[in-house]
């Protein structure tokens, strides 16, 4: 836990996230190897790890994204709805919007 402005904020590292996903559904995601980078960095810029040759990278597991664009609009981007934004967010997310939710296949 680290202190926030008003109350402690709990942080979740990738190992904790992977364990939580497994405990909830007995599924897994291909994790990256940098322990200080959260899911936002791994999912939107790659997520290259030891299992990527077998499972692919974390970025490959994205099926949809909820995004706030620079003009303030909120969209749900998939391969079929807003495909240009969906593919632009794969690898260059911070240049196009703020991702509020990652929808991942496990």
Structural write-up:
This protein is of the alpha+beta class. The chain contains 4 helices and 5 strands, in the order E-E-H-H-H-E-E-H-E. It is globular, with a radius of gyration of 15 Å. The model has no long low-confidence stretch (mean pLDDT 79). It has one domain: Uridine Diphospho-n-acetylenolpyruvylglucosamine Reductase, domain 3 (2-Layer Sandwich). A hairpin with a 4-residue loop joins strand 3 and strand 4. Residues 27-77 form the FAD linked oxidase N-terminal domain. Belongs to the oxygen-dependent FAD-linked oxidoreductase family. This is FAD linked oxidase N-terminal domain-containing protein.
User: Please, how many helices?
Assistant: 4
Sheet with the most strands, sense and barrel status: 3 strands, antiparallel
Fraction of helical residues: 25-40%
- Measured on Cα atoms, how large is the radius of gyration? 15 Å
Mean pLDDT: 79
How many domains in all?
A: 1
At the third CATH level, what is the topology name? Uridine Diphospho-n-acetylenolpyruvylglucosamine Reductase, domain 3
Q: What is the level-2 CATH architecture name? A: 2-Layer Sandwich
Cα distance spanning the termini: 28 Å
User: Order of strands in the sheet with the most strands?
Assistant: 4-3-5
Quickly give the structural class: alpha+beta
Strand content range: 15-25%
Unreliable residue stretches: none
* Bulk shape: globular
User: What CATH first level would be assigned?
Assistant: Alpha Beta
Run of helices and strands: EEHHHEEHE
Q: Give the strand tally.
A: 5
Family: Belongs to the oxygen-dependent FAD-linked oxidoreductase family.
Keywords: FAD, Flavoprotein, Oxidoreductase
Protein name: FAD linked oxidase N-terminal domain-containing protein
Domain FAD linked oxidase N-terminal: 27-77
